[in-house]
Fold these 4 entries.
Entry 1:
Amino acid sequence: MGSQDEGKRLAAVAAAERVQNGMLVGLGTGSTVAYLLTALAERGVRAQFVCTSPRTEAIAGQLGLPVRDFDEVTRLDVAIDGADEVTPDFWLVKGGGAAHTREKLVAAASAAFIVIVDSTKLVPALRGPVPLELVRFGLASTMARLGSVRLREVPPSPDGGVIADYLGPIEDPATLAASLASTPGVIEHGLFPPEMVTEVVVGGDGEATWLARASASTTQSQGASR
């Protein structure tokens, strides 16, 4: 196993230890989450899981992890997911696996959001590209409004959206996020603001390090609705 894969595994195993019996847990999508699924199955924790993609759901089923339909719940105890880039102030770029719309919905519905990455994903500033999910209808005009954008040669999102990447500069993530969100034809973008993030687990150099955002809290008085 290469050092980057080992870092992913270390972060995933550490995050899996936070999952307790009776929890309702959101599961992201991607190579780091694949290590998380294995770690959860090995622990044998009696929790229930909401998956952000058919790929994650299929692996969870193979490992015997009980999956709930997201339409059946309104609140989760925690969501755990990877990221493509993480800045020191906890801005994220996500969506390399083309599931960022569902990932953002699950993170927003969770009392805590734990991000698991290897150390190569830590960056001083976001570089991009920023994944986008676009409405197929009027796609050419949407792309013209966006400017620096390129369609990705991948299947549609789990909900049928077209996957693309914004290639322009990221001078201020908040300004760009607002601009992308307000562009007609954009379903969702892959910029996740710091206020969504509770903790980041970084795997590298043989250990997992927990980083907490200063104003984030890992506890919340109201439990998840089941």
Entry 2:
Amino acid sequence: MAELPQIHSVHASQAGRVARGSRHASGRGERPSLASLVNWPFLLVIALLVAYGLLVCWSAVQGLEKYSFNRQLAGVGAGLVVMAVLWRFDYRRLANMTTALLVINVVLILLPHVPGLGTTAGMGARSWIKIGMQVQPGEFAKVTVVLFAASLLARYQGTLDDWREYCKVLGMLLIPFACIMTQPDLGTGLVYMAISAVVLVMGGAKGRYLAVTVIAGVAAIAAVFAVDEMLKYQLPDGTWEYRLLKNYQRRRLLVFLNPEADLSGDGYNLAQAKIAIGSGGLAGKGFLQGTQIKYGFVPERHTDFIFCTVGEEWGFLGALTVLGLLCALILRLMRMGERQEEPFGRIYCYSVAAILLFHVLVNVGMTVGLMPVMGIPLPFMSYGGSSLIAFTILVFIAVRLDAATRQFSLGAKY
């Protein structure tokens, strides 16, 4: 593999600003306070989302013996500790650590395959590890994927105009996707693809390269279905088993294309989700009063279908509040990205915004039949400590990058 270009501007271009800032700061005789560096409106939006999420999760886990609300509270506490630890680290140092970030990412994703450590969940996906408690490494790998992708594309300084370099970058971005599909976890894999698309655009890839990639991707999807059809085999009970796509994945796609075809079978979950959201009306049935939720008609009401709990108990206004807060979070991340003076920080902030947007579109879309059903949590709302902590890390690194940028703009040495 050819050597990647080195970043010369991440630290070097700031050296002059640091020197000038040091002289300026010494003239003032004081360092900017912490409060002047933190984006408090951004943190307020996160706090409101987490608080709302706790309220909804409390209702959703009622009657579910396997799931404890205290675990979600523990996840919030762990997130606060992580925020305090992360604040002291300057993440711009990661801009030149592409290879190390890729290795860490691959190790995280493949951890569930370690004998005695990994465990299956859901429809047989080997996505979890047991270390006294269940942890989903793929969620934390989203952080390393974004850092790796931002580090990789920042090296090209917004001018990825060489076809060979583009192919090399694309190949490296596909490594995390290939690893996660060994579990297989299609939902998280699609998140990685969304990250890759954003960083390629932000990294300055030419439009014709992107167009060829999209066409190749569509052709690859068609090839998967064609090959799978040829490799299928019949089980003793007369049903067909496929080797590439799991049967449940195919059924989800068929339900998405024709949700009314089997309302008592594969289409049942989607039908009940629509009933729950629609029955909430304008203001909802009230906290802990959702009948579709309370009596177990909605599947995974605390995780993938958490938006149904919001819709039934809090109604249209409650759902609009959640979407409004998430939109505010995404827009503020994009604004942070615009403030970044270096490619690494800019690509990182936009990538995190893309992750949140993708999660919102898929999670909310699948509950109303606009997207196929897949295991994608709603950020800061769905039950699960791994997801909550991972999203906390993602957004707080953006807060830290933004603080560093604002500090340099104030002329203070960090």
Entry 3:
Amino acid sequence: MNIAKTNVLEVQRNNLGFQLFKRPIMAGIMVAMDLMQGSHTEEIQLHGQQHLLHENGKPLPGPYLWLSKHEVSMDVINVVPYWLDIDPHLRFDLRGAMRNFKKSEYVFRALDAAILRHFTYHVSRTSRGEGNSPEEIERLRTENEEHFQQVRENYRNGIHALMFPEGTTQTDGTVFPVKSGCYNIAKIEREDGSIDLITTIPIGLTYDHISGDQDFLFQRIQRKHAFVTIGKPSYYEPLARREGESDESYVKADIGNHTRRVRERLIDLNTFTVAQLAGEYVLRSAEAGRREISKNELEDIVSQRVERLQRLPKTTFDDQLGNEYGRRHRIEQFWEGLERRGYVDYDGNLDLQKTLVVPGFEHYKRDNPLRYCVNRVQQLGNYRDDIRSVFETTGEEMLKRVRR
């Protein structure tokens, strides 16, 4: 896990070498980000930016603690350019994306070692097995706390922090339980016992892993559609303490309450995509034993679901789904993605084995990206009965119709 220092030019004030070369370094980093983004992401949309602005259109004062859903190693690359449109004084690092790249991508690792290490704090994940001995685990935990303390000091200098609190991209597509790190830097405890609260900004990242085209340069990377949804600012809210509760018990309960609230907000910041709306119906059809499906069915089910979901509060959609032409375009992209991935053939015959497989977390996105996308919206439905009802009702109605 990495925590990004977002106003890096301020952090490097005393680094003479960096001061001499900071402009070409930052320009080079932004160019590299743009190139990397284009090779991995076909399209990006931003929603919710109004939550960061005053009524006069100016950015809200920082510093912020940005807490983002973590999907892929390219998350930082996909998000940064849009935040710079909101406030050009913000600067973000790349290391959170670089550290998970394949070893063959030596150029990016060289950049990481030479430059990007100045912009991030690495947080060791001892809860996931990092550290080979009790002594090393204790050392890593001490280093983590030192980094958290530096982040708190940075707040006092107006420097933002960006964190991916799930601590992993190896999931089944759902928002995983949030780690306690976001609790540790959501507030500053002063010597007199008072607490300064840090404005927390939740970022809901949603990817369509099916509908993007292949990398136009190498024709081997499946590009994605990315959707960035910024939530309303919030603050740490301490849990009410029970009478006679020990300090250790209270802190544990307080951490659990805070991380649970953060996770629920990230779940709620989903963007509805064609891979979710149509993908859930494809999966439902496969589970019902159907062996073929048509594009017309997918157009109908997506239109019905968009129409009904738009009546519900707090729902965000891929912009292309808001009109008939855009929906048809997305269905074409989704269908081509299904064919390219081997879910359907030219005649619409479903590969039931591929559609229904449940892979391990490490390769879930690779082995069944359709179910990966659907799992995200099904998790949202588990939290919201109104959304689950729309999916169940429209899905069953459509299946009954095609069976006649």
Entry 4:
Amino acid sequence: MPIKVVYIDDEEMLCQMFKEYLQSDKIDLAVFTDEDPGIAYCNKSHPDLIFIDSVSYTHLTLPTNREV
């Protein structure tokens, strides 16, 4: 059974590169350039691994309580 992997990035070129390098019989890969469909897909399919472009989607990352 292939592992389910999701990649969410606003840059289309990076999504295509990720798909070209990782798509295989052992990896069921879904890529998204928009966070809303990506999140909806994750909620529905429960992937094993999720990659998120944290620079573009900082509001999706966990908040930090770091004082400067």
